[in-house]
């Protein structure tokens, strides 16, 4: 049994495995420009974030119906459960789907068909986080939030993803303010490829409660001090960082230094179908490459539940934390 954990940085579209992509393409009459899953896997060599995003947006065109989103989410939840994930806060990218002519209902209700039954079917509690694409306009983000209004009972929070450099958090100040007024929780990708200032801006201008990635905070000691002092969680994704060349090798990952600095770090899979591993694969990889002790791994698992948006169910959080404490390696 793997260590119990929460997954807090997971793009549902990034869980689309090649086999499912081809199945959905056949079901929906979508032509992919790859002959088979093997040829598709060959394309999984990324130079940087943008080269990955190009394939990520291309492949998600196979998702067309509620059933497709339900199947995608169920496939993820099955794998996540087998990897010890007890709670998952799941990102989705509605703008990428609305731009292809789908409506918000298809996306949210499709995902909800799986998420709403996830506890019974998979033993995994879930939350849904709507992400805005930062390389789209601020107006488009506001329109997307409006389109999501009928579904806010299904949506816990908002996030910000896609191409980071050149798209500073300040651009999304208004939509974050509106979302806060609606009672939505707030996270944002920052400091993955972008500079430490984007982390500071996300905290000061967007009021974020967790930083997704946040790796580059290590370039700014004052920012590290602030993140430690304010107990701001970071959702790190080690295998993603290697595949997108944010770090050279896993052995170079700053996770041990970040933990030593007192940062509230969590380990997550980001886009596991593309980056070679789900949640526990990331835990095992950092254990092996960075020599993390069992107590460090337990700390990471504890952090994942502490950083999760379970304020509406503290009893559950306490149960999950007790599972972590009782875990025998
Ligand atoms: N969308 C999916 N994965 C992402 C990542 N790692 N960074 C930014 N946007 C993303
Ligand atoms: Zn991400």
Write a structural description.
- With 329 residues, this protein is of the alpha/beta class.
- The chain has a single domain, classed as Metal-dependent hydrolases (TIM Barrel, Alpha-Beta Barrel).
- Helix content is 49%, strand content 14%.
- The protein is built from 17 helices and eight strands.
- The chain has helices at residues 18-28, 37-42, 49-59, 66-82, 94-98, 104-115, 118-122, 138-148, 173-181, 196-206, 221-229, 238-243, 255-260, 272-275, 279-290, 294-306, 314-326; strands at 5-11, 85-92, 125-133, 157-161, 185-190, 210-213, 234-236, 265-267.
- Strands 1-2-3-4-5-6-7-8 form an eight-stranded parallel beta sheet.
- Strand 6, helix 11 and strand 7 form a beta-alpha-beta unit.
- The longest helix has 17 residues, at 66-82.
- The termini are close together.
- The structure holds adenine (ADE) and zinc ion.
- Residues 9, 11, 161, 189, 212, 270 line the site of zinc ion.
Quick rundown:
The chain is of the alpha/beta class and 329 residues long. It has one domain: Metal-dependent hydrolases (TIM Barrel, Alpha-Beta Barrel). The chain has helices at residues 18-28, 37-42, 49-59, 66-82, 94-98, 104-115, 118-122, 138-148, 173-181, 196-206, 221-229, 238-243, 255-260, 272-275, 279-290, 294-306, 314-326, and strands spanning 5-11, 85-92, 125-133, 157-161, 185-190, 210-213, 234-236, 265-267.
């Amino acid at each position: 049994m793997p260590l119990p954990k929460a997954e807090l940085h997971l793009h549902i579209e990034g869980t689309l495995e090649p086999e499912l992509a081809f199945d959905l393409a056949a079901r929906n009459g979508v032509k992919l420009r790859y002959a088979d899953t093997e040829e598709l896997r060959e394309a999984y060599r990324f130079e940087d974030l943008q080269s990955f995003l190009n394939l990520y947006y291309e492949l998600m065109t196979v998702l067309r119906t509620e059933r497709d989103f339900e199947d995608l989410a169920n496939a993820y939840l099955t794998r996540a459960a087998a990897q010890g994930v007890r709670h998952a806060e799941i990102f989705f990218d509605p703008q990428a789907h609305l731009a292809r002519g789908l409506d918000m209902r298809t996306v949210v209700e499709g995902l909800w068909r799986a998420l709403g039954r996830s506890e019974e079917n998979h033993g995994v509690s879930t939350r849904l986080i709507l992400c805005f694409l930062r390389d789209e306009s601020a107006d488009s983000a506001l329109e997307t939030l409006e389109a999501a209004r009928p579904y806010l009972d299904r949506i816990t929070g908002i996030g910000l993803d896609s191409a980071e450099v050149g798209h500073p958090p300040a651009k999304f100040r208004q939509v974050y303010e509106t979302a806060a007024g609606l009672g939505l929780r707030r996270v944002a990708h920052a400091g993955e490829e972008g500079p430490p200032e984007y982390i500071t801006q996300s905290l000061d201008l967007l009021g974020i409660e967790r930083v997704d990635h946040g790796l580059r905070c290590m370039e700014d000691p004052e920012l590290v001090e602030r993140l430690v002092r304010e107990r701001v969680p970071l959702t790190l994704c080690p295998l993603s960082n290697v595949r997108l060349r944010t770090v050279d090798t896993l052995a170079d990952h700053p996770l041990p230094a970040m933990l030593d600095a007192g940062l509230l770090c969590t380990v997550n899979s980001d886009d596991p179908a593309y980056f070679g591993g789900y949640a526990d694969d990331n835990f095992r990889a950092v254990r092996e490459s960075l020599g993390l002790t069992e107590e460090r791994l337990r700390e990471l698992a504890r952090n994942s539940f502490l950083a999760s948006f379970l304020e509406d169910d503290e009893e559950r959080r306490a149960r999950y934390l007790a599972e972590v404490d009782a875990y025998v390696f």
